Every structure is written in C-alpha cells, then in structure tokens.
Amino acid sequence: MKMLLIVLVAAGIGFTAGYLIVGSRPLSAPTQIIIVQTNTSKKSLKLEVPLRRKMAGPTSATATGAPTTVTGPNPREILERLEQTKLRPGPEQSQNIRRVIQLFEELTDCGPAALPGIREFLARNLESDYEEDTDEIRSGWRDGMTTDFLLPPSLRLGLLRTAQRIGGGDAEHILVDVLNSTGRGVETAYITRLLEEIAPQKYKEAVLATAHELLTRPALTGELNRLDRRDQEWLFGVLRLYQDASFAQQAQARLIRDDGTVDSSALGYLNDALQGKSVPMLTLAYQDNRLTNNGARFQIAYTAVRYVGVESAADQFLQTVLEDPKNSGDMMSELIRSLSERGLENRREPSDLDLQVLAARQSLLETFLVGHPKFKRTEDLTRTIRLIGIMRSPTASKPKER
What we know:
Blueprint: H1 2-11, E1 31-37, E2 46-51, H2 75-84, H3 93-109, H4 115-123, E3 126-129, H5 135-138, H6 155-166, H7 169-179, H8 185-198, H9 204-216, H10 231-241, H11 248-253, H12 264-274, H13 279-287, H14 294-305, H15 312-322, H16 329-338, H17 352-371, H18 378-392
Parallel strand pairs: 1-3
Antiparallel strand pairs: 1-2
C-alpha cells in the first residue's frame, strides 16, 4: 500500500472512475475482438472474443455532429501512447502506471476533441488488460462494480470512462454504440453504470435485452483474461441492478452445474430478484440428484434458511434439510445456528417484524425437537431455541456478535 501511495504522490494525479455494468442486443454473425494481455507470464499474449454487430434501428443517443478543434495536446497522439504503454512486471511497472493514469487525465482534458479518436480506437476492437497493477488499485473489482478505481482495469474501460467524463451527445453515442455491439459481460456491466449516471433508466430495456442475450448465448470462448472469466457474474449483476426477475426460469435451469456444484451467480440472482419466492426453486435444486457436492447442498440450504419464519415453503424446506441423513453434522450445526441471524433486519435490536420471524422460528424448532427426540443435533437445537428466546425478550441481555 505504501508503494502505491508513493507512486500516486509522485505522479500528482488522482483518478476517479466509474461503475461496472453495459448493454447490447441480438446480432448475427460474430466478428472478433483481440484481447492483448500485458502479462508476459501467460501462455498466450492474445485471445479472441466475439463481437456482436450493431443492431438495426435507431439509437436513443444522438451524435451532435459538431466539428471539434484541437487546441492543446493532440488526442490521437495520447491514444497512441496509451496503446503502446504496457504494464508488464519489472522495474518500469510503477513508472508506466503513473504514465497511464496521467495520459487518461490528459485525454480527458482534451474535451470533445478526443471523442473521434476514442470512437475509432474502440471500433478497432483492441484491448490492453492492465492486469499488472497492484492489489490496492484493483481490489474494488473483487466485490463487483466499483466507482473509484485509480487505474482503469483495462484500456477499453478507461476510454469508455473518459468519454463519459467528457460528456455530451457524442460521448453518449459512443457508449451506446459499444453497448449495441459488445459481446463482453464486463463491458455490458460497465457501460450500464456509465449510462445510468448520464441518463438513469433511459437505456434499461436495451441493457436487459443485451444481458439476456449474452447469458443465453455467450459470445466468449477459449482462454479468457481475468475480466472476462467473470462474464456471467457481470451479466447477472446487470439483472440484479434493475431487479429484473424475468430471467428466473433460465437461471433456475443453470443453477446446478454438470460437476454437481452450484452456479453462485445464478443463485445470487434468484435470491436477490425473487427473495422468498425463490424457495420453491431452491427446494427443487436441493432435491436434484445431480447435486452431489456437499458444499453445494449447504449453499442452497443456507440461502433458503433466511426465509424460514417468513415463507411457508422455507419452513417445509428446513424440515427436509434437518431430516436429510446425507448432511454432515457441521453443516447441520451451522444451518441451525444461522436461524438466529439470517434474514433479520437488526439482530442486535430486533424490529417488530424480526420479533415475529423469531417467534415463528422458535416454534418450528421446538416442534421439531419434540417430534424427533433422537435427532443427532439436539444440542444445537436447544442452544438456538434458548438464544432466540433471549433475543425476543426486551429485558434480557442481548447476545454478543460472533
């Protein structure tokens, strides 16, 4: 971290960036986008990613067509320098990080005069992945879409953000054009965020159409770089952003992978988009014979447990899980303990709704305990019932956070 601060202070630059999410639409025959990776330790420096063609029909964004005059630094020269600067490991890496950050700032300072060059570069379908940055710079991307990266994760994403920062009709038109042609989930996700900042909800339908298409017919094949490996996650993130539940059946169909594990992106989407209404789908997945991975069984059960005491389907699901001899003791203990925590608005100071949920859960566990005197995890049940009782008592001392 100290090294990063020294690098940034030496450059004298702060770089604020945008979000992660894009859109496009159905296209016919794919062309190719070349991903030029900057990590020389990789087996291959290039890989091809299908590019979707622009859909026929009018676009919502309108280019102004106004002539641009270059009065300062030449934006095309800046673009050439950006294209030529590679962030490879080695003694020059820190210097090149500073150079890339500064070049993006200079390009932004060029204003509308930079937009024609940005459009032309994006149309060439070239990419440089800035994979050799430090953990501190790229850490925000581990959790999804960030609004504050110092160094763009890649050249194309940096140029998209630059166009948005410049602003205006031409800039918006550039974003929409890439939205209508990209075959990458990461670009779909990112442009969505950029467009939401410019015109909230304006491109929602186009974005969702793109996300649905790319989830149904993925354009990415072969060896993928670090951004494209999370392609499905970015696309489900788009659906979650808009709380779009219309893809639920397709997500249910892909919930269990061929190797018996769970597609975490699809599971998270179903949980977010449908909330408690996802429990019947989770029940079917839990009972699927393909679900042979014990960790996967826990994932599904742990997701459904949050709705116990709220949805009758979740109450029935809990009994199925507790009676299932295939579940390990550790898994059962963790699920039972989670009933005092999961799905509550405020565990420390339960709301009225929380108190109702806790009362329902306590009743369920007490009933199960009476009906199954030989249950192997009786101690866990008794402990959780006692803990829930304490949480429901306004005068009792509250449980400590684990």
